[in-house]
Design a protein that fits this description.
4-stranded parallel β-sheet; protein biosynthesis; alpha/beta; 3-stranded antiparallel β-sheet; aminoacyl-trna synthetase; Gyrase A, domain 2; 53% helix; Isoleucyl-tRNA Synthetase, Domain 1; 11% strand
Length: 563
């Protein structure tokens, strides 16, 4: 049952005709505390037309409202406060969660339409740092959320596997590397060559010329250059996959920048046919001065293509291949201008579907207030952070529950979950300074706190060992359970809010509140009392566990049954 609509319907019958149902719906508020009611309507909007004090209006309207289906309707100052029928509400909510199980909160808004998501996208031959965590877990969570609304996410790992940096890497490897060294520790040694290249190029600028020449050889199909590039790529993907496996992240496509090499000529031709290309200092550009933007550089003076050329080709390929309803790019905030240019150029090319491209920016993870940089060698390796988090989880398990079965698996789920949840509970646009102790903290508003709450709920059900499915009633009228029940009812709305804003933190903040609310209920109520309300209370516990697990799953966090 839609309880908010019940409130709206009751109000519409007594309000002036000029106040529409849509207006009433928008004006409805939720009081901060349950003692002020479950929904509230402010009467200030009526003061001018009725020429009365809002408080007087509220008093008069309360006397006219049909209170059937409500516990009571009162006025507090200028507000009309509605108290829902707790018995009917709890019966309805618990039954809906138990019946629908993991489908609770599902909707058909997407109608099965495709939504490509460009996410993660690490650079080949560089380690995955904490900086790569954000795009990976934000993109993965958005994919989970929109899938619940029947959009079909297509997760694309747009690998950074092309560009001048590979010329630099080849030069560095040829000068200072060896097959044996690379095979022994691929990513760290390739990173070492890359960092050394940049240091030495400051004194020897001719190294940059050599790097550009090697990249041009790659573009021209040179056998040696491509063989080295393929080797670096295969070694990197193997290393990346171990991280993705631990994060529980899967991809539908590993189509990196190189995939679009044979698709860029068509883009350049379309730009030419539309008279959009101009020559500037030997390079080919699209002039964007009318938008107060620097030019979109399509081809450099040596004919080599650039990042935006490949992104134009990628956007066109995704539209042709997936016929998307939306195309999402989960990329750092510093790329805002790039995506503005991308959409403008696509529109100029005549592709109105450019309006369906959505850039989803996120803030930086810094250290000491400074941006992480592989070029300078100051990186925080994601694998190291995951390992440290798992060690801390294992230590806490040994202290609190040394006889726990599958301790290693639980520690992995809790440690990795702590890192993922810490990232996703922040609004994605916010930057934060990396602090290992903060990331893997298990007290307070953390992933492990939510995981433990779910494990507690499941422990209550195991201890009771009672079949609650045949209860005569699922009504829970205990006032201590009321906030928890209202939060369960709000879950479908939360999913839609998270999807509409492409914001996983909406789910993370919700599940923290649900866990806190349930723990307060547990602390103040005797759930396992053997009385006529036992089965209904156990059904509530099961409902809470179901929604906690679904929320964690939407964030890409596992939910161990015991901790």
């Amino acid at each position: 049952m839609d309880f908010k609509k019940q409130v709206v319907d009751a109000l519409v019958k007594v309000l002036p005709d000029e106040i529409t149902e849509e207006q009433v719906t928008k004006l409805i508020e939720k009081p901060k505390t349950s003692d002020l009611g479950d929904y509230a309507f402010p009467t200030f909007i009526l003061a001018k037309s009725l020429h009365k004090n809002p408080k007087v209006i509220a008093e008069e309207l309360v006397g006219q409202i049909n209170t059937d289906g409500f516990e009571k309707v009162v006025n507090t100052g200028a507000y009309i406060n509605f108290f829902l029928d707790k018995k009917a509400f709890s019966e309805d909510v618990i039954k809906e969660v138990l019946d629908q199980k993991d489908n609770y909160g599902n909707d058909n808004l997407g109608k099965g339409r495709n939504v490509p998501i460009d996410m993660s996208s690490p650079n080949i031959a560089k380690p995955m740092s904490m900086g790569h965590l954000r795009s990976t877990v934000i993109g993965n969570s958005i994919a989970n959320i929109i899938k619940k609304l029947n959009y079909q996410p297509v997760k694309i790992n747009h690998l950074g596997d092309w560009g001048t940096q590979f010329g630099k890497l080849i030069v560095g490897y040829k000068l200072w590397g060896s097959v044996e060294e690379v095979e022994a520790d691929p990513i760290n040694n390739l990173l070492k060559y890359y960092v050394r290249f940049h240091k030495e190029a400051e004194e020897k600028p001719e190294l940059d010329d050599e790097a550009r020449a090697w990249f041009k050889r790659m573009e021209d199909g040179d056998e040696e250059a491509l063989a080295l590039w393929t080797w670096f790529k295969e070694l990197s993907l193997k290393e990346f996959q171990t991280i993705y496996d631990r994060l529980g992240v899967e991809f539908d496509h590993f189509t990196g920048e190189s995939f679009y090499n044979d698709k860029m000529d068509a883009i350049v031709k379309t730009l030419e046919d539309k008279n959009l290309l101009e020559e500037s200092r030997g390079a080919e550009i699209v002039d964007l001065s009318q938008y107060d933007l620097s030019p979109a550089l399509i081809k450099k003076t040596d004919g080599a293509t650039l990042y935006i050329t490949r992104d134009l080709a990628a956007a066109k390929y995704r539209k042709d291949t997936f016929d998307f309803v939306k195309s999402l790019y989960v990329v750092g905030s510093e790329q805002a201008e790039h995506f503005t240019k991308l959409k403008i150029v696509l529109k100029k090319m005549g592709y109105d579907w450019a309006d369906d491209i959505v850039y989803i920016p996120f803030g930086l993870i810094t250290t000491g207030g400074k941006k992480l940089s592989t070029r300078k060698g100051n990186v925080i390796l994601l694998e190291d952070v995951l390992n440290d988090a798992v060690k801390l989880a294992k230590k806490q398990i040994e202290e609190k529950n040394p006889n726990l079965k599958n301790k290693d698996a639980v520690a992995e789920a809790v440690g990795v979950g702590a890192v993922v949840f810490h990232d996703l509970k922040n609004d994605r646009r916010d930057s934060f300074d990396f602090n290992l102790e903060e990331v893997v903290r298990f007290e307070g508003e953390t992933g492990p706190y939510v995981q433990y709450t779910n494990a507690r709920a499941l422990s209550i059900l195991r201890k009771a060992d009672v079949d609650y499915s045949d209860a005569d009633s699922f009504a829970v009228t205990d006032i201590e359970a009321w906030d928890t029940l209202k939060m369960l009812a709000d879950f479908p709305n939360v999913v839609q809010r998270a999807a509409n804003s492409y914001e996983p933190s909406v789910i993370a903040k919700y599940v923290l509140k649900l866990a806190k609310s349930f723990n307060q209920y547990y602390a103040h109520s005797r759930i396992l009392n053997d009385d006529e309300g036992l089965k209904a209370r156990l059904a509530l516990v099961k409902s809470v566990s179901t929604v906690l697990q679904m929320s964690l799953a939407l964030l890409g966090v596992k939910a161990p049954e015991e901790m």
